[in-house]
Amino acid sequence: MKRLFISLSLLAGFIFTQAQDAAVPTLNYSSLEKKLAKNDEAIQDEKANVKPKTWFTRGELLQDINDVNIEFLRLGMGTMETKIYLKDPIEIKPGEKEGVVQELYVYERITLTFENDMLVDWEETQVIHENPLPEALKAYKMTLELDVDKKLDIKVHENLERLKRQFESKAIQAYNRGDYAGAVEVFEYIVEVSDTRVYEGYADTIIIYNTALAARNAGMHEKSAEYFRKSIDIGYGGSDAYYLLKEEYAALKDSNKIIATLEEGFQKYPDTTLLLIEIVNFYLVSGNAEEGLKYLTLTEQREATNPSVYFAKGTLYEKVGEKEKALEAYNKAIEIDPEYFNAYFNIGALYYNNAVEMYDIANAKEDLKEYNEAKALADEELMKAKEPMEKAHEINPKERSVLETLQTIYYRLQMTDKYEEVKQKISEL
User: Fold this and answer.
1) What is the dihedral sign for C-alpha 105, 107, 111, 112?
2) What's the confidence (pLDDT) of residue 14?
3) CA-based end-to-end distance of the chain
4) 43 phi, psi to nearest 5 deg
5) How many domains, the chain?
6) Which domain holds residue 406?
């Protein structure tokens, strides 16, 4: 979320600076209503609706209608500055959102929301058209379709640039309200604007990337993946785009695309340790230890002081049956971080599992002497599990799996007081 917030914040500064620089005297509300009614008639007229100028005029009109209540507004402006343009409100009402005190400035056709004397949002309560910007886009697309001689292309391009800024403003407002799906919808209109012929194949990279991020926040994983893929294809987003695309495929539970994305990203950005670690983790979880170890060697070279790298290495060695190498790796993780819970737990679990196998061997002995000898060896192995598991408990005293393992260890080793102590702790969880 942080990435989207930064990107949109930069975008917001651009949008509203532009809007302020281009400010013009407020358009007459009733005049716009009359013009829209007249244009509505024109696009129904068989002679007028085949003229590109009719649709071009409609596009400009709808853009002006969009701005009639908000042309001088920008996020962050203070109440005094607002009054210069809109005069005093009809009413000032108190408000609150997520514990933050607000002031609502109520005007005839719009209500402004201020926090700490800064404009943070607005809601238009009386509009001429419910959704003017998408309709303006349709009008300009009709203009281009009918204008076969391309006489209006330059003017259409200028107006579409303004339309993109208007859409950007709407997208930011939707995002700030937490309406991420709404932000995605508006961002997609901007992408549609850039697909018109006057842009000649231009790709609006930051908009495509922000669409992916907004879709991610909205939980729209398929759409998010689609736009992260587009970002990658046009060379935008760097290694982060690959990581985030991987996250979306993970949400979609598409393991084939997860590893394909990670390996593609690593080939393109071989110096990105995060992608390398993610590849190792993927193979770790999927059980392909040998493939994971190949990548882990590279990771270890880059992250020599990262305990999680050695922990992963130990886990992979365990999976391929290299227990001594696994212990060596776990101990290296502890050497780097003496409070590394997972390493202590895995060391304890490794010795514990060894002991279980040895007890099974002992129980299979029919000769009493052989049984006692085998059981003594199993007890010694189980004793090795005691100290690291106790350290894991010390680091994370509420971890139930540790307590249950210790309970079994103490029972097997006939450490009655310790057994009762742990049993009580489990009952209190």
Assistant:
1) negative
2) 40
3) 35
4) -75, -10
5) 4
6) 286-428
Torsion angle in degrees (nearest 10) through CA of 190, 194, 196, 202: -170
Distance of alpha carbon 164 from alpha carbon 95, whole angstroms: 32
Residue 139 buriedness (CB in 10 A; 0-12 / 13-18 / 19+):
buried
Cα three-residue angle 383-386-388, rounded to 5 degrees: 125
Contacts of 385 (CB under 8 A, 6+ apart): 347, 348, 349, 350, 351, 352, 355, 405, 409
CA pair distance 248, 254, nearest whole angstrom: 9
Give the model's pLDDT for residue 338. 96
Q: What is the reported pLDDT for 215?
A: 97
User: Does a structural domain hold residue 271?
Assistant: no
Q: 12-44: per-residue pLDDT in tens? A: 444 334 334 433 344 588 999 999 999 999 999
pTM of the model: 0.69
Please name the helix (run of DSSP H) or strand (run of DSSP E) that holds residue 166, with its range, or none.
helix 153-176
* Pair (43, 160) in one structural domain: yes
In a domain? residue 54: yes
Q: Is residue 278 part of a domain?
A: no
- Give helix then strand counts, H and E, for the chain: 19, 4
**Alpha-carbon dihedral angle through residues 379, 384, 388, 394, given to the nearest 10 degrees:** 40
The rounded distance, in Å, linking the Cα atoms of 223 and 168 is 19
CA distance 220 to 165: 24
